[in-house]
Specification:
Elements (H helix, E strand, L loop, with lengths): L5 H15 L2 H12 L2 H32 L7 H20 L2 H24 L5 H25 L1
Helix pairs in contact: 1-6, 2-3, 2-6, 3-4, 3-5, 3-6, 4-5, 5-6
Length: about 150
């Protein structure tokens, strides 16, 4: 018999995939600092595009929870509305002058983190998820902050 419960295995897979999702942030930021000229600008742009896609993913997890219908969610419409907010914030960040895009993405990730931590604290997600989101957000925000001097 497997010593790990289904919940433990699921949490392990989520953690593994989540930490793997940091590779484009960390690797992209390192590569941007090593590159020069147009290559540097291209790498910064690629990290920004990835950041926007991850913001969209973060919002979508709320849709998945509400649409699953398993938790008797009574505030579903509010969570569905919030679920589209991160993707709109990310898209809006790309429309700003280049010097404001990355700082706006950082603020968007921090807002999404605060909402997700609150949802985990309220029991909408497992507690370990809130801890994971904190760790991921720290790395994402630090790597994006390291791009600010290159993105202006």
């Amino acid at each position: 018999m497997d010593a790990l419960s289904f919940e433990d295995r699921r949490a392990s897979v989520v953690r593994l995939l989540s930490y793997g999702g940091l590779v484009p942030f960390v690797g992209g930021t390192a590569l941007a600092w090593m590159a020069e000229g147009d290559g540097q600008a291209a790498v910064v742009r690629e990290v920004v595009v990835y950041a926007v896609s991850i913001l969209s993913f973060i919002g979508a997890i709320h849709w998945g929870r509400v649409l699953s219908g398993r938790d008797g969610e009574t505030s579903g419409p509010a969570w569905l509305a919030w679920g589209v907010a991160p993707s709109l914030l990310g898209w809006g960040a790309t429309l700003l002058p280049s010097g404001l895009t990355v700082p706006t993405l950082i603020l968007s990730f921090l807002l999404a983190w605060a909402v997700d931590r609150s949802a985990a604290a309220d029991g909408r997600y497992p507690r370990w998820f809130g801890t994971l989101r904190t760790r991921l957000t720290i790395v994402v925000c630090l790597t994006l902050a390291a791009l600010i001097p290159l993105a202006a």
